[in-house]
Amino acid sequence: MLMEQESGMAVGSHQGLSANGSRGVRALTKAPLWITTAAALLVSGCINIGSLTRGVTGSSGIAEVQTDNPEVNAANIASLTEVVSKSPTNPVAYNTRGSVYARTGQYKEAIADFSQAIALNPNFAEAYTNRALALRQTNRNDQALTDFNNAIAANGNYDPAYLGRANLYRSLNRFEEALADLNYAIRLKPESAQLVHARGLIYQRQGQWQAAINDFDAAIDRNPFVAAPYLARGQCLTQVNKLALALEDFNAALNLNNRSADAWAGLGLVHERMGNKPKAVEAYQTAVGIDGGQSVARAGLTRVK
Fold first, then answer.
1. d(CA 190, CA 37)
2. What is the CB neighbour count within 10 angstroms for residue 188?
3. Is 1 exposed, middle or buried (CB count within 10 Å of its CB: 0-12, 13-18, 19+)?
4. Residue 293: which residues within 8 A CB-CB, separation 6 or more?
5. What is the mean pLDDT of residues 228-246?
6. Which of 49, 101, 162, 212 supports an S-S bond with 185, CB 3.0-4.6 Å?
7. How far apart are CA 250 and CA 247, in angstroms?
8. Domain ranges for the chain
9. pLDDT of 122-153, one tens digit each?
10. Interatomic CA distance for residues 60 and 211, integer angstroms
């Protein structure tokens, strides 16, 4: 899953907030959804092999919640609650605490905080975007879309809102609208790996393999230390039967995240197609060991065992 500090992120303004000094961003390969750099939210460019053999990724476009140290999160929430109590009219305080609530899966509390931030500042694009992400996690896509729209209305150059809305459009198969959002966001921030990766996922869903590969190339050029674009590019290369290159990409993805069941499944499929059944079995078994529901690996095992 691709995560970046620079994009796909709704960040509350930093002034006046320390949140226990939580400016440290996790390693990109850890792929958190909710982080606290004054507690930011990340939008996923995640892809999920729904059926690699059909070339269709089944990603919802919603990032997963990174499990953190409960004691650290509790301390952050306590610290931020103190900030809120001292600054009850500061929308940034609520946005920041809401981000930590969201990281811990406390979406009801997160949405309440984001809503309060918006009530205090109706033009707070970050809070609208953060609330939209939390709403998506609770399967309220219609409300999430409204919030993404409101974020863009509040700040027409706020690229995380375009990225979030594009991911939502992608999950609804509204590809042209998703591409329009991503193309605009890329014009705003052409150096963003997150944005070009997200556009590559649209092309991948449409079966435009070379266009997708080009965007994954660009994402890797911008940030080579994230597993997701290698995984996605490996999938596309498998589709166009460039198996040796696909093998390299799946191995690169696993070097960055060796707990990716999708990457192990892709590796198994390439080994199977290259006629190396022992390695295919090993890779498929590893994928299933990580995720028992990994359909590509399960189907592969029935063929090669």
1. 22
2. 14
3. buried
4. none
5. 98
6. 162
7. 5
8. 9-257
9. 999 999 999 999 999 999 999 999 999 999 99
10. 21
